[in-house]
Amino acid sequence: MRHLATLLLSALALLMASCAHPRGGYKGYMTRTYTVRGQTYHPMSVDQALHHSEVGTASWYDESSFFGLKRGNTSIGEKVMPWHNIAAHKTLPLPCVVKVTNLDNGKSVKCRVNDRGPFIGNRIIDLSPRAAKKIDFRDQGLATVEVEVLSVGDGKYKRKKRRKWFFGLF
After folding, report:
1. Which residue blocks in 68-140 are alpha helix, DSSP H?
2. Cis amide linkage into residue 129, ω under 30° from 0
3. Is the pLDDT of residue 141 over 50?
4. How far is the C-alpha of 57 from the C-alpha of 126, rounded, in Å?
5. pLDDT digits (tens, 9 = 90+) for 76-108
6. Domain that holds residue 146
7. Weakest-pLDDT range from 62-71, 72-81, 91-100, 117-126
8. Per the confidence metrics, is the pTM higher than 0.85?
9. What is the C-alpha to C-alpha distance for residues 121 and 1, in angstroms, rounded to an integer?
10. How many domains does the chain have?
């Protein structure tokens, strides 16, 4: 009887885990307010983000571990692999896709922003090691970059930045 109860509880736990939302419980994008080290951050709305670009200091961080097989360390519960072009930002909706341009050499990379940070100094974005390498600042650690939002959200919630056509008239 005891084994049957254990088996039933295990089956129930497995069933409940399989019903969990695959992206950490958000629908399309995440914009909720959060607090880190006593500082409260208010992420921007999707409309604000779609018109957002900024210039500032970028750094890089490595969230992957042994052969990159560490799971669930992004703010939206995504798997992190060392070959992904991902980034962390304090106030953009998660997830979103940004174009990051190294202003020292003109090289750019598209990154999926799926985490929060950086929470050090005046840095505006943290990139994965691969993304930092693609725009040639991994060895330096920091770079002056421009960040431009290209899209926000996933699946049917995804919204892309509107491009200006005909000399900016539309």
Report:
1. 129-134
2. no
3. yes
4. 9
5. 888 777 788 999 999 999 999 999 999 999 999
6. 34-160
7. 62-71
8. no
9. 59
10. 1
Where in 33-154 does DSSP place strands (E)?
Answer: 34-36, 39-41, 53-60, 86-88, 96-102, 108-115, 123-127, 142-152
Residue 131 has pLDDT above 60, yes or no: yes
- Tokens read off for 89: 């930002």
- Bin 128: left if φ > 0, else alpha if -120 < ψ < 50, else beta: beta
Fill in the DSSP letter of residue 70.
B
CB 87 within 8 A of CB 125: yes
Q: Would you say residue 87 lies in a domain?
A: yes
Where is pLDDT greater, at 76 or 144? 144
Tokens of residue 135, six digits: 């725009």
**Contact 45/93 with Cβ under 8 angstroms?**
yes
- Residue 116 belongs to a domain with what CATH number? 2.40.40.10
User: Is 18 part of any domain?
Assistant: no
Question: Is 22 within the bounds of a domain?
Answer: no
CB 94 within 8 A of CB 26: yes
Cα 55 to Cα 17, 78, 106, 120, 144: the distances in Å are 41, 27, 13, 16, 7
Instruction: Give the model confidence (pLDDT) of 27-60 as tens digits.
Output: 678 899 999 999 999 999 999 999 999 999 999 9
